[in-house]
Amino acid sequence: MRIIRPEVDFPIEQDPHESKVYERAKENLSRLLNRGVMKRESAPCMYVYRQARQGRRQAGLVCCVDVDDYRRGNIRRHELTRPDKELDRMQHMMEVGAHCEPVLLAVLGQAELVRQLIRDMNYRPAMHFTARDGVTHTLWPVQEVDRYLRIFSEVDRMYIADGHHRCAAASRVAHALQDSPTKTESDEIQRFPAVIYPAEELVILPYHRLARFGSGKTASAVAQMLAAVGSIEHIPETEDPSPSNRGEIGIFFDQRWWRFRFPPVEGASALDRLDVVRLSRTILDPILGIADERTDPNVSFLGGRTIEELASSVLSGRFDIAFAMYPTSIEELIEVAQANLIMPPKSTWFDPKIRSGLFVHTFTSQYNQELPSQP
């Protein structure tokens, strides 16, 4: 936390985008390295990284990917980035001289990758622990890197599952430093770290919405407008209000849960069929006046949270209405990305996420003396 979000070391009124905040991140990383908390491998390597919780496991390959593949679209995105967040991560990387978090990438239909990951997991792990949230993390050094190089030589495309801003920032850093002395010391600015998972192993949880009514709107008026555009009915307190199918959402307002079913899909694209898009076109924009979810202060998001948290956010008075969404599938994400389309913000919540602090990829020589080597 003190490296990725160094503003926690400062008073709450501190602007997190001032240079001294990024400098603190660099100082904090150097302290960890000098204490031997992190160790550099003696030679370039890859890892197999597995996460497990409640009987479900997902394993991926930890490696670096090329900035040029991101720029050419071989690493496909499905969301737009916010310029302020992109600049923040760029400035952080530039000052720290490292990529401090890998991005999460997905690759589709690679059975041989799955088999190779399983082979490497038969060896003794280099790290194994269970975190406070109940997720068990296990790490194996890759035994034969060439096997993975051969597998990925046949892969034409990968998909960003989580980390759009980090990908964009890494690309901007590479461009900014391509003619600097740093490049003569290391080509690592042209790469950034990732964990590549077989798409079939990833699970997406719903990303819910919270909103405020526009000026002059009442709960009864909103109820009438909802009934005019779709099917809405009260959900008894004995029933779970979570949506059970695509095309259906739970709505909490007026101190009760309602089940809402969207009208038939209009449009033929992969984007038109997404529930998050249908919500925007059917309710957020025409009824609540929220035209741009990326910038409108009257909408907020809760990823992977419980139904109870949604209701309590409305009952507390912070919001007027909550929308419990059905999760976007990995197949929908890939279909959108393949079509070069862009989802609304906060459409997917991957769980579990990559554990912060396990992998740091440096791209300047300043750490060579600070970071001990270990075979």
Fold blueprint:
Elements: H1 19-34, E1 40-41, E2 47-53, E3 56-66, H2 67-72, E4 75-76, H3 83-96, E5 98-99, E6 103-107, H4 111-120, E7 127-130, E8 136-141, H5 145-153, E9 158-162, H6 164-177, H7 181-185, E10 191-198, E11 204-205, E12 207-211, H8 219-229, E13 231-234, E14 248-253, E15 256-261, H9 275-284, E16 299-303, H10 307-315, E17 321-324, H11 330-338, E18 349-350, E19 361-362, E20 373-374
Parallel strand pairs: 1-20, 4-9, 6-10
Antiparallel strand pairs: 2-3, 2-8, 3-10, 5-19, 6-9, 7-8, 11-18, 12-16, 12-17, 13-15, 14-15, 14-17
Helix pairs in contact: 1-3, 3-6
Compact overview of the structure:
The protein is of the alpha+beta class.
Largest sheet entry: 8 strands, mixed
How much of the residues is beta strand, in percent? 15-25%
Radius of gyration, Cα only, in angstroms? 23 Å
Q: What is the fold named in CATH at topology level of the largest domain?
A: Conserved hypothetical protein from pyrococcus furiosus pfu- 392566-001, ParB domain
How many helical stretches? Answer: 11
Total DSSP E strands: 20
Count of discrete domains: 2
Polypeptide structure, described:
- This protein has an 8-stranded mixed sheet, with helices on both faces.
- 30% of the residues lie in helices and 24% in strands.
- It folds into 2 domains: 6-202 and 351-374, Conserved hypothetical protein from pyrococcus furiosus pfu- 392566-001, ParB domain (Alpha-Beta Complex), CATH 3.90.1530.10; 204-349, Conserved hypothetical protein from pyrococcus furiosus pfu- 392566-001, domain 2 (2-Layer Sandwich), CATH 3.30.1760.10.
- The longest helix has 16 residues, at 19-34.
- The model has no long low-confidence stretch (mean pLDDT 92).
- A hairpin with a 2-residue loop joins strand 2 (47-53) and strand 3.
- The chain contains 11 helices and 20 strands.
- The radius of gyration is 23 Å and the shape is globular.
- By secondary structure, the chain is α+β, with helices and mostly antiparallel strands.
- It has helices at residues 19-34, 67-72, 83-96, 111-120, 145-153, 164-177, 181-185, 219-229, 275-284, 307-315, 330-338, and strands spanning 40-41, 47-53, 56-66, 75-76, 98-99, 103-107, 127-130, 136-141, 158-162, 191-198, 204-205, 207-211, 231-234, 248-253, 256-261, 299-303, 321-324, 349-350, 361-362, 373-374.
